[in-house]
Amino acid sequence: MIDIFGELEIDLNNITCHSGGAEGADTYWEKMGEKINVKTKAYSYKTKMHTSPNKVEISEEDFQEGITQVYRANHWLNRYGIDKYINLLARNWCQVKYSKQIIAIGTIVNPGEKTAKGYRCNSKYQSVDGGTGYCCQMAIDNLKEVYVFDQIREKWFRWSYSSMSFRETICPKIMVQDFAGVGTREINAAGINAIKDVYKKTFKEILGS
Q: What are the pLDDT digits (tens) for 173-194?
């Protein structure tokens, strides 16, 4: 597998998590990060349902960019009925735009397979279930580094640009100053532990373990 991403030394005291402030994985990334001085920017677009104390209202320019990026991603994902979710999906673009590494919690679905909710994967390639799939696909479209913890398989995967598929890997560590910590609202115990493992691996010296 061709590795187009190099490791750079980063300042562990100045890391920002770009997320969405939603219940589930987003909240765990945010709350766990607070304990080790990881700042969070939880993006929102014209909604009163957003309750994160780290809420960032996105600009109209970013929102319009997000719409374009969502429809670009959907050329790959080939999903139906996305218009009614466009505010949330376009908001996800900021998570990608302002990050260099995307670390997601979710479920990887193979072409032709059905999701847990009964939706068939119409993509020609593997994709991530739910709204998290748009964040991951927008990141792939823009050649970002993408890791996904699959809650069903309980394994880590990394998107390979050479094989155009998710390849099994080990737990990643945060390797950039700005990363996206995102994922499903329906996080389970394995997903929660996966987030803990990322932070532990990244902040091993600071945490002393």
A: 999 999 999 999 999 999 999 9
Predicted local distance difference test score (pLDDT) of residue 119: 87
Give me the residue label for tokens 């080939």: 78
Q: Which residue has the tokens 């997320």?
A: 19
Taking CA 70 as the corner, what is the angle to CA 68 and CA 72, rounded to the nearest 5 degrees? 70
DSSP 8-state class, residue 1: -
* Residue in 71, 57, 148, 146 with CA at minimum distance from that of residue 109: 148
The structure's pTM equals: 0.93
For residue 31, the one-letter residue type is K
Question: How far apart, in whole angstroms, are the C-alpha atoms of residue 198 and residue 179?
Answer: 12
Distances (CA, A) of 207 to 37, 97, 199: 11, 30, 9
Q: How does DSSP classify residue 84?
A: G
Residues 104 and 135 sit within 8 Å (Cβ to Cβ): yes
Instruction: Please name the residue that has the structure tokens 């991603």.
Output: 73
Residue at 108: amino acid letter: I
